[in-house]
Amino acid sequence: HVERKPFPKDFLWGSASAAYQIEGAWDKDGKGPSIWDNFVRIEGKTFKGTNGDVAVDHYHRFKEDVALMAEQGLKTYRFSVAWTRILPNGRGEVNEKGLMFYENLIDELIAHKIEPMVTLYHWDLPQALQNAYGGFESREIIEDFTNYATILFKRFAGKVKYWVTLNEQNIFIIHGYKLQNHPPNVNNAKRMFQANHIANLVNASVITKFRELNIPGLIGPSFAYGPNYSIDSNPKNVLAAENAEDFGAHFWMDVYRFGEYPIMVWQWLKDNNLTPEVLDGDMDLLKHAIPDFMGLNYYRTTVNADNPLDGVGLGKINTTGVKGSTVESGEPGLYKHVSNPYTDKTNWDWDIDPTGLRIALRRIASRYRLPILITENGLGEYDKLNDDCTIDDSYRIEYIRQHLVAINDAISDGVNVLGYCTWSFTDLLSWLNGYQKRYGFVYIDRDELDEKELKRYKKASFYWYQQIIKENGKQI
Ligand code: BG6
């Protein structure tokens, strides 16, 4: 654009986190165990056996953290509620102490003029429900989840105006039921598609309840999306990229928006005997639960090439932080992911592709005709705490700056972007990659196994984003 449009006046400049990754206090004040509390204890599942028992102790230091948010000038802060703090067994008796923690956090945010944005589910399912009926594999979860959400809706109605239903359903389903690096640690395609269908019903049921209760505000899911490119113009590779879009994105977002599974994916499921059980009323429920926005978690794009039926299957993701340790993966007969020769990579092999964000925003806006809330975007890297307690993360500033330019371009293209939450505000536990993969504006002095004093230090990016917010993005 010769001249970019300004960011909207009420643009939500924000930052995000998730309960398990920051709170710690995993068994305090009546909290029940979640599937992540247990999964991290299985040997070899996380980097050096790291867990969120203490995490960055946000549970005890939330006031200090909110003060930092206020100093930076955040307009919104996205966090998730740990279901097991509210209902230690996933259902049944409510734990008032758990509710009070979030009430205090929300009040603290509001007192500092920061809009709370609440994610209902960021992967920490109550272990009790996993044990009782297999979690997302049973329809019982629809009622239990909706009851849990209702408790929060009623308690925080009026105070919380932005609600995220499920965080990255595609990630927790694929990693939990195929790659075996999330709980419930299963590799079974039939069960995966069944659990996924039920998760769709959960999402729809919660949105329907939100409407019935007339809760003021907006609600929608957060989806992990990055555009799929073709490696070149060979039609076979272009088709592979189309497959990757259908199977990796439309399979979820079409359901959220239209209440329909994409035609080609459904046919493939039928041909492979993998269709989930769809009962009377399911599709009707899905069709009528249209979200107010599409939440977008954007990190990277993917390049695709043709993959024959005897081609590449499960690969290996880089959880080591050593560049180049990703092993090719794909879905035989559909696509395989290959490296992009045009983009820089992080130390965890994630493509750095700001233009991909502009493309993502445009694709979502065109196909789904909904406002978009960017609920996550950020750079996971090694940071160094200097002797004088400064952290020069200029690479992170550049990463965010370029992504803001892409957002500004998309806004100028006509896309309605409600806000932008960086991942993350403080450093936190990266589920599989420990504490050394840092995302925050605020450095937390701890490493994988030594919690040290968990002191907070502002990185260079903290001050930079502070200025961006102050000028409403004028000087990017
Ligand atoms: C998203 C999640 O998938 O990406 C976050 O919603 C996560 O919880 C983030 O931390 C970054 O991923 P990772 O693997 O680098 O921690």
UniProtKB/TrEMBL annotation:
Q: Which GO terms describe its molecular function?
A: beta-glucosidase activity
Q: Which GO terms describe its biological process?
A: carbohydrate catabolic process
**Could you give one GO CC term from the UniProt record?**
cytosol
Cite the InterPro entries for this sequence: GH, GH_1_N_CS, Glyco_hydro_1, Glyco_hydro_1_AS
Indicate the residues that form the catalytic site.
376 (nucleophile)
Q: Which Pfam families does UniProt cross-reference here?
A: Glyco_hydro_1
Q: Which domain of life is it from?
A: Bacteria
Q: Which SUPFAM superfamilies match?
A: (Trans)glycosidases (SSF51445)
Q: Which PROSITE patterns match?
A: GLYCOSYL_HYDROL_F1_1, GLYCOSYL_HYDROL_F1_2
| Keywords (A to Z) from UniProt | Glycosidase, Hydrolase
Q: Does the keyword Hydrolase apply?
A: yes
Keyword Hydrolase recorded:
yes
Stated family? Belongs to the glycosyl hydrolase 1 family.
What is the protein named? 6-phospho-beta-glucosidase
Q: Which organism is it from?
A: Thorsellia anophelis DSM 18579
